[in-house]
Amino acid sequence: MRTLVFDTPAEASQKAFELVRESLENGSTTFGLATGSTPEKLYELIVASDLDFSQASSINLDEYYGLTKQDPQSYAYFMKKHLISHKPFKNVYIPDGEAQDIDAELARYDKIIEENPIDLQILGIGNNGHIGFNEPPADFNGRTQFIDLDQSTIEANARLFDSIDEVPTKALTMGIKSIMDSKKIILMAFGEEKARAVQKLIEGPVDPMVPASVLQNHPDVVVLLDKASAQFLA
Ligand code: GLP
Predict the structure, then answer these.
(1) Ligand 1 atom closest to Cα of 61?
(2) Distance between alpha carbon 217 and the CA centroid of its chain, in Å?
(3) What pLDDT does 200 receive?
(4) Relative to the CA of 194, which ligand 1 atom is closest?
(5) Is the whole model's pTM more than 0.90, yes or no?
(6) Residue 62 known to be catalytic
(7) How many other CB atoms sit within 10 Å of the CB of residue 81?
(8) What are the 10-residue block averages of pLDDT along the chain, 234 residues in total?
């Protein structure tokens, strides 16, 4: 893992943008994308750029279960708002949080990932070390999963909802094995609330209780931090 620490999230996001540009220019066609506050600036930079993704595919990490795609809290809505409606992609794949047949949806998503190997995966990290919505203890061999959200994740994400009761308790997420199959991974983490998870990600043992720690076993991961999230690193 290569770790780069920047003074501000904006500078780290600029570096992420440059890595995305390089990847696109080097022929990448499939981009694994994340939601959350962390990648917002990166998406802003992509939208403001002249980068052309019209021949590329995006595959999102995860989606809440039980929200409609029009719900402003859904990740489908987030992606449309922050990226897709401004920067067209040839194909946009997001797990279907309205699926009635969950097993069929998990299989559909696995097939999409299998048919479109991910060249570059963008990741954030949860306060509890989750990636996508792979909560601890994570199945390092898992493919797309239907999961119960951790209470700590529900509490962390409640800031984006009117009340904690509105936060979905279940979600669909790409599995750790699929994330690990990506050729290259960029993980971004900003702010002091991420500092403990970042320390465990980088300096802790590889442990299913810290799902992101498995990235230590991936050959090409760049971790982009700001000073606050890097504060506990040796
Ligand atoms: C969310 C998402 C993750 C995201 C993480 C951090 O619950 N499922 O994909 O990386 O938690 O979110 P944020 O960037 O808003 O801190």
Answers:
(1) 9
(2) 18
(3) 98
(4) 16
(5) yes
(6) yes
(7) 13
(8) 98 98 98 98 98 98 97 97 98 98 98 98 98 98 98 94 96 98 98 98 98 98 98 97
Query: In a mutational test of the pocket of ligand 1, which residue from 130, 150, 169, 176 has the highest number of ligand atoms less than 8 Å from its CB?
Result: 130
| Cβ neighbours around 120 below 10 Å, total | 23
CB contact at 8 A, 199 and 233: yes
- Cα 85 from Cα 165, distance rounded (Å): 30
pLDDT for 84 equals: 98
Ligand 1 center from residue 2 Cα (angstroms): 21
86 is catalytic: no
79 near 92, Cβ under 8 Å?
A: yes
> Can you tell me whether residue 163 is helix, strand or coil?
coil
- One-character DSSP codes across 185-207: EEEEE-SGGGHHHHHHHHHS--B
What is the rounded distance in angstroms from the CA atom of residue 208 to the CA atom of residue 109?
A: 23
Q: Note if 134 is an active site residue.
A: no
Q: Which residues contact 151 (CB under 8 A, 6 or more apart)?
A: none
Q: List all residues whose CB is within 6 A of at least one atom of ligand 1.
A: 34-38, 61-62, 124-126, 132-133, 153, 157
pLDDT of residue 100: 97
How crowded is the C-beta side of 111, counted as CA atoms within 13 Å?
A: 6
Whether the upstream peptide bond of residue 137 has omega within 30° of 0, thus cis, is: yes
Strand order in the sheet with 221-226: 2-6, 221-226, 184-189, 120-123, 30-33, 57-60, 91-93
Q: Which tens digits make up the pLDDT trace of 14-69?
A: 999 999 999 999 999 999 999 999 999 999 999 999 999 999 999 999 999 999 99
